[in-house]
Amino acid sequence: MSLIHETSILEWQAAMTAGTTTSRELTLAFLQRIATYNKQGIRINAICELNPDALAIAESLDRERTLSGSRGPLHGIPVLIKDNIATSDKMHTTAGALALADSFASADAFVVSKLRQAGAVLLGKTNLTEWANFISNDMPDGYSSRGGQVLNPYGPGVLDVGGSSSGSAAAIAAGFAVVAVGTETSGSILHPAEQNSLVGIKPTVGLISRSGIIPISHSQDTAGPLARTVTDAAILLSALTGIDENDPVTGKSEGLAHTDYLPFLDADGLRGARIGVVRSRFLAECESEEIALYEAAIEKLKEAGATVIDAVTIPSENAEWDIHVLLHEFKVGVNAYLKTLPASYPIRSLQDVIAFNRAHGEQALLYGQELLEESEQTSGTLTEPEYLANRLFDLEMSQKQGLDAVMKEHELDALLYPGSTGYAIPAKAGYPSITVPAGYTSSGKPFGITLTGLAFQEPTLLRLAYAYEQATRLRVAPNMTKA
């Protein structure tokens, strides 16, 4: 078996089934690794809180395995979750905000209940860019007032860690757990996945429930997996799907979601696939070495049997997008979430958060809070003509005149972007994307490629990503001994 921090879910399951290890031993090993590197050594600072019941949960799952067998691939597997996802246990749920530092959620998020049902060991909460990077335009990736700065294991203090699921990504890259759950509104899974040389899946909006997740936008929010391999990401995605009566958007997934995505993984899955290469303004965001890595990835897709259409243009890619939709929806969503906290908790609204931050400005407002304040100025009713016009514009330009148009014109299975540059249009469309490691620059900076499809085309994206991963096997673990 490979090193503990690089071992896959299926390898761990085989070892636990064979009796050569246990969930307890696995959990202890990850706790030791967190002790070594999270707050000392290179101080990744990806974990903001550990579950005091983690070891007990692991032991109970070991006993259950002995008595009645395994629940499935996640049985006994330590999993980390982003600290904007509610847990009704002894851990706080804070979104990285000091205003919520002492708050406990009233109930598990739907995705947390699904993880518990699957037999996962909830190891702890990961740090993040505060409020999922919706507090200030100047907030650094990976920083929160509660948790401090997350560092990238591939270049601590030098390389951008990505945001806002920075802690989830850095933790998995550093080997603090097997897999982690992040959330994305626009780039918050895909970007840190690339920066930390991971596989990240931003699912179709509606595939995974958002109930119990501190929100930004009901139009764009979703949870999703971060993992070291496509297989591990597929296993975690399988556990998270399901229709939730408390999140009506999941009704869209009826008959389209799967509870097992492993059958779609095919090492020969690129053969006959039609992939549209996106260049234009997206390449302008890349360094010369990254462009060379992108070209190498395109050649590998061709070698693996894909038909590559180079280059395609998304008709709406130069549209003038803005964040008005997010500003309006944030207030509605956050106020609704805060109302679910125990009645004794004093922070009940976005207005309360803003006031708390002002009263504790030296700690809470190192980078300001202009996005919170702009959002508070909206009505909270979603009736403004500006909001409605922008929401309709986003849908029309991202879907009908955007991704739908280019996919239909070229009969594509997926679009290919360099790095994580292409996250914004799929985010507004609510369409899925997957990022896969695609090498490193001479300085050791990770680079990835992103594949995007239409709604609920996760099986296709997983097939293509897996085939590329198996044909290249480019991911290398970070050197954790660097000072």
Shape: globular
The quaternary organization reads as single chain
What strand order characterises the main sheet? 1-3-2-6-8-7-12-13-11-9-10
User: What is the percentage of strand-forming residues?
Assistant: 5-15%
Q: CATH class of the domain at 9-254, anyone?
A: Alpha Beta
Q: Major β-sheet, in short?
A: 11 strands, mixed
Q: What's the CATH architecture name of the domain at 9-254?
A: Alpha-Beta Complex
End-to-end distance: 28 Å
**Poorly predicted tracts of residues:** none
Number of alpha- plus pi-helical segments? 17
Radius of gyration using CA atoms only: 21 Å
Helix content: 25-40%
Tell me how many strands there are: 13
Q: What would the average pLDDT be, to the nearest integer?
A: 97
The CATH H-level homologous superfamily of the domain at 9-254: Amidase signature (AS) domain
**Topology order in helix (H) and strand (E) letters:** HHEHEHEHEEHEHEEHEHHEHHHHHEHEEH
Q: Which topology of the domain at 9-254 does CATH recognise? A: Amidase signature (AS) enzymes
Keywords: Hydrolase
Domain Amidase: 25-462
Protein name: Amidase
GO molecular function: amidase activity
